[in-house]
Prior knowledge:
Blueprint: H1 7-23, E1 25-33, E2 38-46, H2 54-71, E3 78-83, H3 96-99, E4 104-113, E5 116-126, E6 131-136, E7 139-144, E8 148-153, H4 157-166
Parallel strand pairs: 2-3
Antiparallel strand pairs: 1-2, 4-5, 4-8, 5-6, 6-7
Amino acid sequence: MEPVQTPLADRLTALVAPSLEAMGFALVRLRLTGQNRVTLEVMAERSDGSPMSIDDCTQISRALSAMLDVEDPIPNAYDLEVTSPGLDRPLIRPEDFDRFAGSLAMVETRRPIEGRKRFKGRLLGRDAEGIVHVTTAEGEAAIPLAEVTRAKLMPDESTIAAALRRH
């Protein structure tokens, strides 16, 4: 799902995730983009569920920069970007589909399921077989998790209202 992990991305994940956890954050996504000048995007969230602040991103950036300078895992020049998931957060881990059940989401698949590859609707979570269920305008769709290539939340009035209450 989402970015294909490479050996370098796997190594970076193994370095970054424990550092974030020690600081009270969780890794949502690590992505490498670009060819000549690489960008390392680290998307993190607070482990306690509180909203991320600019200060949190700055703290993470400084700590990861120092660690990456010592470890030097990226062979050429790179830019580090630390971001928070935001309201249109990607759904990366299988448990994300359960955690955000009830939320409006967009799910894309690698091959057509029930005649289409894009599903927009309310997440109902996963069943015991790992099938993601989404209620769409056309009815309920059953999407094998292994077929999901990209998924993200779609902010709606209730999501925005909840975010405003947290702030």
